[in-house]
Amino acid sequence: MINIAILTVYDVGHGNYNSISTDDDQILFDLGAGKHLNKCELNTHVSNYFHSSDKSLLIISHWDVDHINLILALSNNQIRLIKAVIAPIPPSTSTCKRIIKRFNDESVELFLISPINKLLKGVEVELGLVYTYSFLGKEPIDLYIYRSSGSSNKNLDSIVTYVETNNNRILLTGDNHYNKAIKYVLDKSKGLSTPLYTVVPHHGGEAGKIDSLSWKSHSLYKLICSRSDSNKYNHTLHSVLNKFPWCVVEETNGTGSKINVV
Ligand SMILES: [Zn+2]
Predict the structure, then answer these.
(1) What domains does the chain contain, in order, with CATH numbers?
(2) pLDDT at residue 54 in the model
């Protein structure tokens, strides 16, 4: 059987909005865009990318604005197209409260996941497997959802997602760190040698230590960076991408969305 999953990294400025779709299912990973975009620009991204056929599972990596702000630009009908949401328990900000209310008002099922361990000073943040799903359509895919322990670093207090098809693998970290993905996800996986596709953590900015040899041993094939030149942090850092000289590297940066048949 030929299994095809399509990874799309939407071109939404310096934010994150990805999807993994097959003929039967769609998983959205984050629904955000650049945090300085105005309402009109956010609406344009929604109308360009969020299609009425998208009856989806939405996974939110963490609650930073650039990973969630498109949710507030969705219409009520579009919110109802989301079957369920899996997210870390949100911080108690007014934006997060508005988003949760929108889901509740449209009866979207919410799975808000606590950290796997409490935040403890001096103790390393870990990732633990909290959900696995097998989508048994024409193109079956296995989905693994990891939750971190508590962290005062918002980028680390998050969810990481890993997908396997018969042909390829996809790792989506949001802004979580390279070394966490290696230690807690890839090193504990089945050790498959099918090509691995990853969206570059933290839009190409600092995101922990990079052990190039480990990434190579896990068959990392392609890195896609969801970023925009307009960011004030000077991401993408060349010091980051230089660690992956064998990899195919792509970036959104106003070039149109990156669609990869995997
Ligand atoms: Zn981000």
Answers:
(1) 6-261 (3.60.15.10)
(2) 58
The predicted pLDDT at position 230 comes to 83
**Centre of ligand 1 from the C-alpha of residue 37, in Å:** 14
Q: Which residues contact 115 (CB under 8 A, 6 or more apart)?
A: 88, 89, 147, 148, 149, 150, 151, 157
Is the predicted pLDDT of residue 81 greater than 80, yes or no?
yes
**Mean pLDDT confidence for 58-82:** 97
CA of 208 to the centre of ligand 1 (A): 14
C-alpha closest to that of 31 among 107, 108, 105: 108
pTM over 0.90: yes
> Ligand 1 centroid to 127 CA: how many Å?
18
pLDDT more than 90, % of the chain: 72
Helices (H), 106-143: none
258 CA → ligand 1 middle, Å: 18
Q: Would you state the pLDDT for residue 1?
A: 43
The set of residues, in sequence order, having a beta carbon less than 8 Å from that of 245 and lying 6+ positions away, is none
**DSSP letter, residue 203:** G
Distance 2 CA to ligand 1 centre (A): 34
